[in-house]
Amino acid sequence: MRIVCLDLEGVLVPEIWIAFSEASGIPELRRTTRDEPDYDRLMRFRLDLLGQHGLRLHDIQRVAGTLEPLPGAADFTRALRERTELIILSDTFSQFAKPLMEKLGFPTLFCNSLITDPDGTVTGYRLRQQDGKRHAVIAFKSMNMEIFAAGDSFNDLRMIREADAGCLFRAPDSIRQSNGDISCVDTYDELLARIDAFLAG
Length: 201
Prior knowledge:
Blueprint: E1 2-6, H1 16-24, H2 39-52, H3 57-64, H4 73-83, E2 86-93, H5 94-103, E3 108-116, E4 122-126, H6 132-142, E5 146-151, H7 157-162, E6 165-169, H8 173-178, E7 184-185, H9 188-200
Parallel strand pairs: 1-2, 1-5, 2-3, 5-6, 6-7
Antiparallel strand pairs: 3-4
């Protein structure tokens, strides 16, 4: 069986932290896994900023709930799911991903979770698994599945390299240039064509 594993933010939906940065007026929150390879350092930076500005989980959820899939993403997801199973492997958080999953037709999502106080203050985060994207691909392969993987950030590289096939999608130049062994496409039509070739192979 051949299945597809995709990143979420930047691939199918906007970057939630960038949208929250714009809504909150805190430009430092624009930093994402496209910019910072060390996920723990990035999250500690974000949590410090939330604490400094007195922002809580419901503030992020309010912004996330207003977002729509990227143009063409819903049609792409629908077409892909007619072909095979789609698994979203993301470092987003379950507490604010659900509205976006609904708009994409509820594909399967493996992601992380935030730790909060009763008043909604975000005090930490809990990884589903260390290096979870890569380990998910390894687990699927152990069940005799063949995997196509795609993403746009530093934290997608190990997943893509572990998969049987894959590519970057709309990755920034810094990631493309430093990972020349991984090809990159920039449209959903190109990505679907890559997947069709994988499924037909």
